[in-house]
Amino acid sequence: MNTNYNYITVGFKTTTQRSITSKHPFFRGELIVKIDDEKITFTKPDLSYMGKTYKPFANKKTGFLNTAIMCDIPLGKYEFDKEESNEDKIVVYYAPIEEQEN
Fold first, then answer.
1. Is residue 72 part of a domain?
2. pTM here?
3. 38: left (phi > 0), else alpha (psi -120 to 50), else beta?
4. pLDDT tens track for 22-35
5. Relative to the CA of 46, which of 17, 31, 32, 102 has its CA 20 to 30 Å away?
6. Is residue 70 part of a domain?
7. Total tally of structural domains belonging to the chain
8. Would 1 be classed as within a structural domain?
9. Number of Cα atoms under 13 Å in the Cβ half of residue 65
10. Per the domain annotation, does 46 fall within a domain?
11. Integer distance in angstroms from the first to the last C-alpha of the chain?
12. In terms of residue numbers, what domain contains 65?
């Protein structure tokens, strides 16, 4: 059984929305999502944060945490960047896992 949950899956929701799915515990609770040209960064808001946050919901059958965001991220499965990610943030570059392994 694979218990490496250090990845997200980006799926199609609508033409302007993407579904972000992960089993990683970081995605429990509120998230700040920052999208750049080549990466997406997830952080936890502190008590003073007043901007937009996302709250993933849990699929009780699968255990996946899901949220929908307005963006045009390419569909696929993406691993967390090991060098930039830590307990305070998750960084994901848009290179699908299949491309990262080559």
1. yes
2. 0.85
3. alpha
4. 999 999 999 999 99
5. 17
6. yes
7. 1
8. no
9. 17
10. yes
11. 24
12. 7-100
